[in-house]
Design a protein that fits this description.
Helices cover about 25% and strands about 25% of the residues. It is built from five helices and twelve strands. It has helices spanning about 10-15, 40-70, 130-140, 185-190, 220; strands spanning about 75-80, 95, 110-115, 150-160, 160-165, 170, 175, 195-200, 205-210, 225, 230-240, 245. The strands form two sheets. Strands 1, 2, 3, 4, 9, 10, 11 and 12 form an eight-stranded antiparallel sheet that branches. The protein has a four-stranded antiparallel sheet with strand order 7-6-5-8, with no helix packed on it. A hairpin with a 2-residue loop joins strand 5 (about 160-165) and strand 6. The radius of gyration is 35 Å and the shape is elongated. It starts with 8 loop residues before the first helix and ends with a strand. The relative contact order is 0.16.
Length: about 250
């Protein structure tokens, strides 16, 4: 009697392999069956929660870095008036170097941002405080319109210089200055009245707007202290079609 092909039904059932249990979709696969580099559902969930826990810290770090850059390196400023036309127009944005004058003094021709002197703040709104002041500082840092009390003008003379305006022309130390950046060169419409002569004190700057007929500057509020200068405008970044280094 041949032994092959004679198993009974009982024998067959006895040696049948156990039926495989279907894995649930949300159940982690054994590491050996998972494609290389693919994370399990649990690992993905933990990774997402970890990112959410770290997000406030990342935001805080980014905020601190932005404050440091704004305070010590560079800051964007919004141009709110016509006093520097046509060099700077209303709604222009400029970048101002906050560190350049740590290495050198302001020079004639520099465009500077400075804290408005007391003689010029009477017509300005009160500086916001509290929460309003905080958000105002944020807007200033982004170069958005704000209640800032800073001016932007051009340095025309430094300590020891003698300034005079006569016949619609600027004279520094009795030398007539060539100023190609002025908005208007027509003596009949410039409206630049006579001024001086006056000597700039040591440690002070004489500043004027490029739009001489529409600028509150040192002719009205006097010289400004070098220590009041926040920085030098070196780049017009907005609008894009007026992008320009000074």
């Amino acid at each position: 009697m041949s032994l092959h092909g004679r198993h009974s039904a009982k024998d067959t059932a006895q040696f049948s392999p156990p039926a495989a249990t279907a894995a649930r979709p949300d159940e982690d696969e054994p590491p050996g069956q998972r494609p290389p580099g693919e994370k399990s559902n649990r690992q993905k969930e933990e990774s997402g929660l970890g990112f959410l826990r770290e997000l406030p810290i990342l935001i805080l770090i980014a905020f601190v870095i932005a404050i440091v850059i704004k305070t010590f390196v560079v800051q964007a400023f919004y141009i709110p008036s016509e006093s520097m036309q046509n060099t700077l127009l209303v709604n222009d944005r400029v970048l101002v170097s906050k560190f350049i004058y740590k290495f050198r003094d302001p020079r004639p021709g520099d465009i500077v941002v400075f804290v408005a002197p007391p003689a010029a703040t009477g017509s300005l709104p009160e500086a916001p405080t509290g929460i309003s002041g905080f958000f105002n500082s944020l807007k200033e840092g982004l170069g958005l319109p704000s209640s800032q009390r800073d001016f932007i003008k051009r340095v025309v003379a430094v300590g020891g210089d003698t300034v005079q305006v006569k016949d619609n022309a600027l004279y520094v130390n009795k030398v007539r200055k060539d100023e190609p950046y002025l908005k208007d060169h027509n003596p009949a419409t410039m409206g630049m009245g006579d001024y001086g002569p006056t000597k700039v004190p040591k440690g002070q700057l004489f500043v004027m707007g490029d739009n001489r007929s529409n600028s509150d500057d040192s002719r009205m509020f006097g010289t400004i202290a070098k220590s009041s200068v926040l920085g030098q405008a070196f780049l017009r970044i907005w609008p894009v079609n007026r992008f320009h280094f000074f």
